[in-house]
Amino acid sequence: MDSVVTPTPSVADERFDTARITAAVDALAAKHSGREDVFRTAVAQLLKAEMVEARAVAQAVLLKDRHGRRCAERLCFVQDEIIRILYSAATRHLYRSQVPTGAERMAVVATGGYGRGLMAPESDIDLLFILPYKQTAWGEQVAEAILYCLWDMGLKVGHATRSVDESIRQARGDMTIRTAILETRFLTGDQPLYDELVGRFDKEVVQGTAAEFVTAKLAEREERHRRAGQSRYLVEPNVKDGKGGLRDLHTLFWIAKYVYRVRETNELVERGVFDAQEYRTFRRCADFLWSVRCNIHFFSGRAEERLSFDMQREIAIRLGYTSHPGMQDVERFMKHYFLVAKDVGDLTAILCAKLEDQQAKPAPVLSRVMARLRPSNNRRRVPESDDFIIDNNRINLAAPDVFKHDPVNLIRIFRLAQKNNLAFHPDAMRTVTRSLKLINTPLRENPEANRLFMEILTSDDAEIVLRRMNETGVLGHFIRAFGKIVSMMQFNMYHHYTVDEHLLRCVGYLQDIERGGNDEFTVASDLMRKIQPEHRAVIYITTLLHDIAKGRPEDHSIAGARVARRLCPRLGFSAADTELIAWLIEQHLTMSTVAQSRDLSDRKTIENFAAVVQSVEQMKLLTILTTADIRGVGPGVWNGWKAQLLRTLYYETEPVLTGGFSEVNRAQRIEVAQREFRAAFTEWPEAELNAYIGRHYPAYWLKVELARKIRHARFLRASEQAGHKLAINVGFDEARGVTELTILATDHPWLLSIIAGACASAGANIVDAQIYTTTDGRALDTIAISREYDRDEDEGRRATRIGEMIEDVLEGKLRLPEVVARRAAGRKVRPFVVEPEVTLNNQWSDRYTVIEVSGLDRPGLLYQLTTAISKLNLNIASAHVATFGERARDVFYVTDLLGAQITAPTRQAAIKSALIHLLASEDAVAKPAA
């Protein structure tokens, strides 16, 4: 990363023998004398074969020594030699100038990433052909000969041909060209011409423009992070462009090179920007990221930069990671990846702070939301402490030994920054990181330290400050159980972030809930105002700790409750509050599971849930925790439907817990929902509106959000006026990345199965479903399917095909099993393993047997399940379909053909066995259930 000189060959490069290959090119020139096209083709074929062999050697060495930087240097060396051979062939054999003029000079220069002297296997090659004056016929011919051969070899080449004057002029006005010239590296040709460019660039472009360059590069970085996803803890990170990736290291080097006029990063130690340890960190991060990137390119065979799920395990194996109890090999690898990304972020902060001191970038504040005018260039004491000073809006140490003489300052510095809206000085953060050994048992047990920590957790900007504590290592040392889940990745598609990042985001969403005013969290915000005041701290610490035991062999909810029982007394919680926190952690998934996968109109569901939550206060706290937890999983996971389900479950359960009394009883809530609908939907005459309201069962009014109710009303009326037996309305939910199909049809016992089969036949994967029946025998089903196309128009056409297929099946024109089997035959194998589970339960309903199915999601699974259940002579009364990443969790309320529950143990065992077999079978979708 920091090298800007031509890479030198290593032992592994000896098979790329430049002298031997040059001699072979000379022989081809003699053989094909006078036939330029044939000669060029032969040279391209020769060099391509040599390149393929050299890359194979590079991959073999990489798999052996796992040193990505050396691999990138080897690949760059090979590419350099190829270009030198081509330049030599062009100028000696094709366009030899007997008496060169002053204009017949050229320097071939590597720019961009290639200019740094490092290349990934599938990287682009960026070349600049420098001419002394304007383009000549000779220069054009030589450049074209080199480029055509490179293209014929299958390489991706970016190129430009410019004079020195033109290069300088364009660099002044274009920051991209300026950056490219900053990273140039001479390859071959006229060295004095290149030296002239470098000298004039330094004098005429760089001098006096450091602040302009830094501002532009940091703005580019922010925009790149925005496109790639702001968090560096996304579980499918972009190794090149993501936060904490290689491009961030490149940006550091660009800025350092421009501002400090260094050629190599080790010179930054001499300039006092990094110390020796930080420079070693820089090298270590670059080495690791290059190992990952080179392996991704070799494995995928393309310029892939995203470390996607389907290649994470393979890269982990290539890099030598192994499984440990509670953590897979891939999870250990990804934890290492995120720790490196964190280190890259720390290095960026150090350099930026140095630039702030030189007025090369604006002074910081802790929270942009809380930013306010204040003197920023003076040093003064921080209120309430003589141990810290304010230095350019950043908290810094008044003396180097403030942590040694009082270790509580390791917590206090974060609280003072929070109270005074101060960013953190990197010198202070360096000292914090190097003082972590002071966080020992006496400090962890110190009442003042624990009081300060709880103040941090329950005050404004808690998420920002806790994240800074986490990045320095303080949070993981102060709460050791938290340290175990730092940078821990869960190898599944449901969680978008690492465990620690998820917990910190949940705290941020909890503060959002408490502030109120966000329509996403109406119920939770209302309940937050109504909980007992002493339980405010309870819900905050529970939110921070609810996943604290992830990565352990046992159930993380039970293990997490055990952690809370040990930790919370230290933090000042009473025995009763500690037990409440432990209970909330143990049950933190319960409300979400019941809301999304149980029939909320079934009295038994509500009674069972009431037996778990035990009191209204505990249910309030659980509702708030569940809301923050779901919202913190990732973009698009929380939606209005889930909010409505939680609302319904809460208000259905409340009367049971209060002995029949409810702040808003069921009949009143139905009436309120209908009145709200009437007020918002004024398009119809009253008589028609009354008739329409009467078509829906009470559960509909409680479980469907208002906007969807209005869409349903318009859809039903338009469909029936048009005389359609079957109608489909298409909607697009961008936040969730799904297409919604709302289907109106005559109710039919096999309708859900037919819809699922039609979706599978069209390659549409169902991620959730809302199923309702009207009092006049019509089915109103909303199916959410994963998007296949970027454009809504294309998705709309796919939805139309699905509708036509459903109609054809209902009319007997099409047999689904054959169509589904053909579609499923070519499905892609997914990288996840989900142990199939099937449970049958007669305690969750008085009328139905509840079958809960959990397994690896795949196109056609819902169709196969519903088909299998029907062929087992079971009637499906209702279905609750949900997908959590790669895991499908579907619940069916069923009876036998006579309407009774399934009670015989042998019958239950047969049903369970058939469904387990279907879930476990590799080719179950391709072979319809018998």
UniProtKB/TrEMBL annotation:
Database matches in SUPFAM superfamilies: ACT-like, Nucleotidyltransferase, Nucleotidyltransferase substrate binding subunit/domain, Poly A polymerase C-terminal region-like
Function text: Modifies, by uridylylation and deuridylylation, the PII regulatory proteins (GlnB and homologs), in response to the nitrogen status of the cell that GlnD senses through the glutamine level. Under low glutamine levels, catalyzes the conversion of the PII proteins and UTP to PII-UMP and PPi, while under higher glutamine levels, GlnD hydrolyzes PII-UMP to PII and UMP (deuridylylation). Thus, controls uridylylation state and activity of the PII proteins, and plays an important role in the regulation of nitrogen metabolism.
PANTHER family for the chain: BIFUNCTIONAL URIDYLYLTRANSFERASE/URIDYLYL-REMOVING ENZYME (PTHR47320), BIFUNCTIONAL URIDYLYLTRANSFERASE_URIDYLYL-REMOVING ENZYME (PTHR47320:SF1)
UniProt-recorded name of the protein: Bifunctional uridylyltransferase/uridylyl-removing enzyme
Reactions that this protein is recorded to catalyse: [protein-PII]-uridylyl-L-tyrosine + H2O = [protein-PII]-L-tyrosine + UMP + H(+); [protein-PII]-L-tyrosine + UTP = [protein-PII]-uridylyl-L-tyrosine + diphosphate
E.C. numbers: 2.7.7.59, 3.1.4.-
Family named by the database record: Belongs to the GlnD family.
Limits of the ACT domain: 740-822, 850-930
GO biological process entries: regulation of nitrogen utilization
Activity regulation annotation text: Uridylyltransferase (UTase) activity is inhibited by glutamine, while glutamine activates uridylyl-removing (UR) activity.
Region Uridylyltransferase, annotated ranges: 1-383
Annotated InterPro entries: ACT-like_dom_sf (IPR045865), ACT_dom (IPR002912), HD/PDEase_dom (IPR003607), HD_domain (IPR006674), NT_sf (IPR043519), PII_UdlTrfase/GS_AdlTrfase (IPR013546), Polymerase_NTP_transf_dom (IPR002934), UTase/UR (IPR010043)
Entry remark concerning the domains of this protein: Has four distinct domains: an N-terminal nucleotidyltransferase (NT) domain responsible for UTase activity, a central HD domain that encodes UR activity, and two C-terminal ACT domains that seem to have a role in glutamine sensing.
Top-level taxon in the UniProt lineage: Bacteria
Keyword field: Hydrolase, Magnesium, Multifunctional enzyme, Nucleotidyltransferase, Repeat, Transferase
Residues of the signal peptide: none
Cross-referenced HAMAP family: PII_uridylyl_transf
Pfam families, alphabetized: ACT, GlnD_UR_UTase, HD, NTP_transf_2
Cofactor requirement: Mg(2+)
GO MF, one example: [protein-PII] uridylyltransferase activity
PROSITE patterns: ACT, HD
HD domain segment(s): 499-622
SMART domains: HDc (SM00471)
